[in-house]
């Protein structure tokens, strides 16, 4: 395997370009998955308060021989805590048993509630306090980002959005880049690769580069300048997803991948998503 690539954020902090996501994984599953991931070479873990597995993430970190400062930890503020970010962060720190978070994200803008600017001001204070190293957002559209910047003068280091070959969000990705915001892709493999892995274009690229369809898609994210956090609890897939640093897609192949975009959203629309209670089943 090649060397993991690192992205420099607008605040000067460094973040691995490929991490592991733990959405819908139990605390027990998370411990095993992170153990595998750290042994493979991952150094970035993405969790959230609403995933109810921060305890497992913390346990995995404590059981690992990797020093804390070498692992980049992201967690997120849920929609019902927009007015109470400091307390919510401390609760996350307690569950993780950590002294600081590398990246703290507002999970959704919740426009109906319209508190995200106030929340962002709290985030700025939390960064100044040292409890978090970098601050960012998830699922923010251009108008949400513009409002943050116009009212505080500070842009998020990261905007984590649904982004995969079937929904490439090129306008938003471009706006982020113009304003020095790194785009981070959630659901980067389009939820198990449905409609992507079996696409003839992706299959042909897999043959050309002697890689799996999943590796082609992850490499497309990385070569497009995005951070990706594919989720898996399966050891073989965790390893497969990380084995992407020994090749790059040629420019014409990146152009080919652009042809897969059909605007297919798999998750909620941030403009209308106002849920505060989430049943993870």
From TrEMBL:
A GO molecular function assigned to this protein is:
methylglyoxal reductase (NADPH) (acetol producing) activity
Alphabetical list of SUPFAM superfamilies matching this protein: NAD(P)-linked oxidoreductase (SSF51430)
Residue span(s) of domain NADP-dependent oxidoreductase: 18-260
Database matches in InterPro entries? AKR, Aldo/ket_reductase_CS, NAD(P)_OxRdtase_dom_sf, NADP_OxRdtase_dom
Q: Does the keyword NADP apply?
A: yes
Q: Does the keyword Oxidoreductase apply?
A: yes
What Gene3D superfamilies would the database entry show?
A: NADP-dependent oxidoreductase domain
UniProt site (Lowers pKa of active site Tyr): 76
**Known EC number:** 1.1.1.274
Give the residues the record marks as binding substrate: 107
Where do the catalytic residues lie?
51 (proton donor)
Which key words tag this protein in UniProt?
NADP, Oxidoreductase
Which NCBIfam families has this protein been placed in?
A: PRK11565.1
Family under the similarity heading = Belongs to the aldo/keto reductase family.
Name of the protein this chain belongs to:
2,5-didehydrogluconate reductase A
Biological source species: Xenorhabdus stockiae
Starting at the broadest rank, the lineage of the source organism is:
Bacteria, Pseudomonadati, Pseudomonadota, Gammaproteobacteria, Enterobacterales
């Amino acid at each position: 395997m090649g060397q993991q690539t690192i992205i420099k954020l607008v605040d000067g902090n460094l973040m691995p370009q490929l991490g592991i996501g733990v959405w819908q994984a139990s605390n027990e599953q998370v411990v095993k998955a992170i153990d595998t991931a750290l042994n493979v070479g991952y150094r970035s873990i993405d969790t959230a308060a609403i995933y109810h597995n921060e305890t497992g993430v913390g346990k995995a970190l404590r059981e690992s021989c990797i020093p804390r400062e070498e692992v980049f930890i992201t967690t997120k503020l849920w929609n019902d805590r927009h007015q109470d970010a400091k307390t919510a962060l401390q609760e996350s720190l307690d569950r993780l048993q950590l002294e600081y978070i590398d990246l703290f994200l507002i999970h959704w803008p919740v426009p109906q509630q319209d508190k995200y600017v106030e929340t962002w001001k709290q985030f700025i204070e939390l960064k100044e306090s040292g409890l978090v190293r970098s601050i960012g957002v998830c699922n923010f559209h251009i108008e949400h980002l513009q409002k943050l910047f116009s009212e505080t003068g500070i842009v998020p280091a990261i905007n984590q959005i649904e982004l995969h070959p079937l929904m490439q969000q090129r306008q938003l990705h471009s706006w982020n880049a113009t304003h020095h915001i790194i785009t981070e892709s959630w659901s980067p493999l389009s939820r198990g690769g449905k409609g992507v892995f079996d696409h003839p274009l992706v299959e042909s690229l897999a043959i050309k580069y002697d890689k799996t369809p999943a590796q082609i898609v992850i490499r497309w994210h990385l070569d497009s300048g995005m951070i990706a956090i594919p989720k898996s609890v399966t050891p073989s897939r965790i390893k497969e997803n990380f084995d992407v640093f020994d090749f790059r897609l040629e420019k014409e192949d990146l152009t080919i991948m652009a042809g897969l975009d059909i605007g297919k959203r798999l998750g909620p629309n941030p403009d209308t998503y106002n849920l505060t209670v989430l049943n993870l089943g």
